[in-house]
Amino acid sequence: MLDIESIRHDFPILDQQVNDYPLVYLDNAASSQKPRQVIDAVSQYYLEYNSNIHRGVHRLSQLATDAYEGARVKVRDFIHAQSEQEIIFVRGATEAINLVAQSFVRPMLQAGDEILISHMEHHANIVPWQMLCEQTGAILKIIPMTDLGELDLSSFDDLLNDKTKILAVGHVSNALGTINPIKGMIDKAHAKSIPVLIDGAQAVPHMEIDVQDLDCDFYVFSGHKMFAPTGTGVLFGKKELLEAMPPWQGGGDMILSVSFEKTQYNELPYKFEAGTPNIAGAIGLGVAIDYMLSIGMANIAAYEHDLLVAATEKVTAMGGVKIIGTAKEKASVLSFMIDGVHPHDVGTIFDQQGIAIRTGHHCAQPVMQYFGIPATARASFAFYNTMEEVDALVLGIKKVQELFA
Questions:
Q1: Which one of 49, 89, 314, 370 is separated from 249 by 20 to 30 angstroms, measured CA to CA?
Q2: Which residues pair with 21 in a beta bridge?
Q3: pLDDT at 74
Q4: Distance CA 13, CA 34 (A)
Q5: Measuring CA to CA, which residue among 317, 377, 322, 324 is closest to residue 346?
Q6: What are phi and psi of 314, to 5 degrees?
Q7: Is 303 helix (H, G, I), strand (E, B) or coil?
């Protein structure tokens, strides 16, 4: 059992009133709140040892460098990577996907080659590949999904072929909550020598990740969804692949030597970290990992599962509400429609009751198009949410129904 009261005390933003109601924050799939420990670590950096990294011999620079590289080691251990050289700090999952698209995939593409993604991807795992197809003449192929919001795995098997140059698929759908069977998908792709990128932005906050067990070639995620500062993220890549890839951006710190005749690039991971990074953010990311591990990823997964099951059962029992995305395996997300009410109106009425949910297409417009709807209302849970907040969600739906009766 989690000590929810103690956990909530660590998140000062939760202790406030919105429109004279206690804040109920159910928009965690968009961005999670930050514990006091992360906020303090970021403040401490700026108050006590603000300095650039890797370049200075003075005390502050050494402290900053040690904290920044210490965070990299924490990420390595958190996702069970083999080496910290496989951990690239980026601004978020979006930048990581673009980096892989341009540095790893683009050099191997010819007109007619195929890139395989799924129907339920976030725009960040669609648009970079569309741009790459426009640049190279490659073809974007889509794994279809079912009415439950699950991937059609028989079609997936048919789509894998000699022309497929990469499989890029989300671990957990941000719009539906579906947990995709990525380990089996990775195995099938590798059987045909197809590399795999996994978008783990919605998975990392909710479950333990072992990139060596998954055997994925790339795994990407964002810090702001896992209780860390915004503008932070991670690209994991297998060392041999990263070593063979050219840098994506040029500038300071990604070099060993520069002359007008030739530049010699730095070793991993610095080859992909041009310029002054988000030092404070990376340090905060490391502290966020410490915080999650202090609770226990298995404990987080079990508790959030209970919240989702309770919310699903209570909403399902209500009349006039339809849940969008009813996959057998889900994490943290409950998307729904209230009969006769636009989701934006739902969100507005919820806000009047102090309840923060997300309404819209959730940067997953193809999912909305599949279900023939403009948008959904989405409640998404984190380990600081409570069963009482699940009840508040249900009461919020009832309030909407009363107003639109």
A1: 49
A2: 18
A3: 98
A4: 8
A5: 377
A6: -70, -40
A7: helix
CA dist., res. 298 & res. 300, Å (int): 5
Beta strands in 160-254 (DSSP E): 164-170, 196-199, 218-222, 233-237
State pTM to two decimals.
0.97
Instruction: Report the C-alpha gap between 357 and 348 in whole angstroms.
Output: 9
- For the four alpha carbons of 8, 13, 18 and 24, in that order, the dihedral sign comes to negative
Q: Which domains does the chain have, with CATH numbers?
A: 4-30+296-403 (3.90.1150.10), 39-294 (3.40.640.10)
pLDDT single digits (tens) 152-204: 999 999 999 999 999 999 999 999 999 999 999 999 999 999 999 999 999 99
Please list, in sequence order, all residues whose beta carbon lies within 8 angstroms of the beta carbon of residue 246, skipping any fewer than 6 positions away.
103, 107
Spell out where 8-86 has E strands. Answer: 17-18, 21-22, 24-25
Residue 310 exposed, middle or buried by CB count within 10 Å (0-12, 13-18, 19+): middle
- Rounded to whole angstroms, the Cα distance separating 159 from 250 reads 36
Q: How confident is the model at residue 88 (pLDDT cuts 50, 70, 90)?
A: very high
48 Rama sector, left if φ>0, alpha if ψ -120 to 50, beta otherwise: alpha
- Please report, to the nearest 10 degrees, the dihedral formed by the alpha carbons of residues 393, 399, 401, 402 taken in order: 160
Taking Cα atoms as reference points, which of 209, 216, 215 lies closest to residue 169?
Answer: 216
Residue 363: active-site member: yes
Could you tell me the sign of the dihedral formed by the alpha carbons of 98, 103, 104, 106, in that order? positive
Read off the pLDDT of residues 306-332 as tens digits, 9 standing for 90 and up: 999 999 999 999 999 999 999 999 999
The phi, psi pair for 103, rounded to 5°, reads -90, -40
Q: What is the rounded CA–CA span in Å between residue 147 and residue 281?
A: 39
Instruction: Fill in the amino acid letter for 27.
Output: D
Q: Token pair for residue 401?
A: 């129904």
Q: Which of 4, 363, 373, 394 is catalytic?
A: 363
- What residues contact 313, with CB distance under 8 A and at least 6 apart? none
The amino acid at 100: V
- State both tokens at 189: 């792709």
How many C-beta neighbours within 10 Å does residue 146 have? 14
Question: Is there a contact between 30 and 381 (Cβ–Cβ < 8 Å)?
Answer: no
* Whole-angstrom distance, CA of residue 220 vs CA of residue 207: 14
Quote the longest CA-to-CA distance of the chain. 74
